[in-house]
What we know:
The chain is globular. The protein is of the alpha/beta class. The protein folds into two domains: 27-237 and 280-328; 341-624, Alpha/Beta hydrolase fold, catalytic domain (Rossmann fold, 3-Layer(aba) Sandwich).
Amino acid sequence: MKKRLLSLFLAAAMALGAFSQAFAMGAIGELHNPSSFETLAEAHESAPAAVNAIRGNEAGTFVGHPALEGYPEGTTYVYRSENLYGGQAAARLNTNIFVYTEEKFADKDAALAFIEGLGLVDIIEECKGSVVLVNPVGETFGTADVYPYYQLQTAMLAQKDFGLDADGNRISYADAEYFGGYGYEYFIGIGGGATFFNNYIAPEIDFVGRLAGVLLIGGEMQKVRKPATFVPIYFSGADEKTIEKYCAADGVDATTFVEGKTTYYNQAWPLRKVIVSEETDAAALVHDAYYNLFVKAMRVPVLPQAIYSGGAPFAGYNFDEAPYSLCDRCIVIDGKTAEGIYYIPHQCEDTFIDYINENGDYMDTWYEYVPEEVLNNTAPEGTVPLILALHGGGDDARVFVEEFGLLELAGAERLAVVAPDHSIFTMNKNDSFEALVKYMLETYPALDASRVYATGYSMGGGASYSVGYYKPDMLAGIAPFAGSATPQPEETLANFEDKDLPIIMSISAFDPPPRRLASLEGPANEAEQGMIKTWAGINGIELGDFDFEKYPYFGQKADELTIDTVNDEFERYTWYLNNEDGEPRFAFTYVFDMIHALYPEYAFMLWDYLKDFSRDQTTKEIIYNPNR
């Protein structure tokens, strides 16, 4: 009976979220489109009007991406799921699955039946996104199909890309938002499609370096070819030499065998794996590859543009940044992640209408990510931390949670996250954030009022500075990453006469100046120096003049400096400043070689620091516990 009651409770929670979403027809970040199946030419033609109609896009001018001009007709089909993500940056949440096969189709019905038979329609409807089915230009795949692959990649991954018309007016390209994405890109090659991947996609880092997972059924690989970088890959019917090449690229050093599958993997970086299955049924292989490989990995573009595409026709656009970083993914399926974090959307609600601004705007949309034990009240009261997550300018709150790593962090550390959409309301923002935190604490008794933290990126980093200034009693620490410089308002000085607020700040070396850097790959600029001094002072730490010759990048002598490598790819320096009690109340981290972009490792960086702090709810003092 107890299990039955629990199931009913969780089902009710999910139903409430679905009810909210179903009736939020004006909601930001969703297209509310029916499912569709089109030729690529039809999708290219349909895209501008559909994208122009998205909330927030009405004033723009949209056209099909010029990268698709001259694309071979009759070779490619696009299935779009119901209610795709779109608007602001939400299209980055769409899953895109390329399917390359030499099997020919008499018409669209036959092509649709093919992907239905593979189970891909059910999969893409579940996760939202598109399936792009591709036939060769000729009878078999070969060199003639390489440039069309580049055309597709460009049009689908160039989120928010734009150009200028003859009069110098901005025109935006619609295809990426209509059926594209960028982080959840997967490839399925069947027969000749697998051979095409091995010989033309895998050896090109600009191609394979954007894919988060690959399934190859059959196929061959020429002796001269080899993968340009590591990639999670699943094989059926591959020869040993081909498997060995991918194992070498992934740096595998361990093997397991379970139920007809051999998995070769890198023990230090387990996403780098090669799975070899004895299964031969294509639909069964698609199902297993998707749920046991694809959904566990994502790729995030964080390098400077055009490193590996300088000679390509459309080089240098936003997200032309291969290889993308390979990171863990925690997908939400049926309202929850595999780790038991429940996703509860609230869209177009009037809960916080009391905080309306002069334009009639208020916080009407927010998203909750709550551990199962919090929902069912099996976690002890007041034991689960809460993070207020504040997205950047033009971003979607859900994109921020996933690409910043907060969803994965919630599952790993058993904490809750609440992410408001704060893109339109400009007044009473800090009061709204305080009201949202109070709402969460009242709604979920298991949440710990002494361990509430705020983080944000870019504009959201600026917002976390601001909420820290105005509402320090509510918080045990803040983490503004690449935060917009936000000087302390004079009226908030009194908030820190008898209290402080721990902080970790972060910038990256290719964050373009003059935003936060004095020069590209250089030190903090004057505005950022001002933020460093302000927040060190708030925590009782007085700083002198900055000396970047003596103390590169940070400009101050630190009580501790750590140097490490993040995700086996980026060097990171972190400086810590202690207060008079020897507690590290201020941290500043600098990540090399990265641009201004969301990165899933950021959440773990900030949590490694903030988890040690809590705020006594009686005295309002900060408590430091490094053994937590």
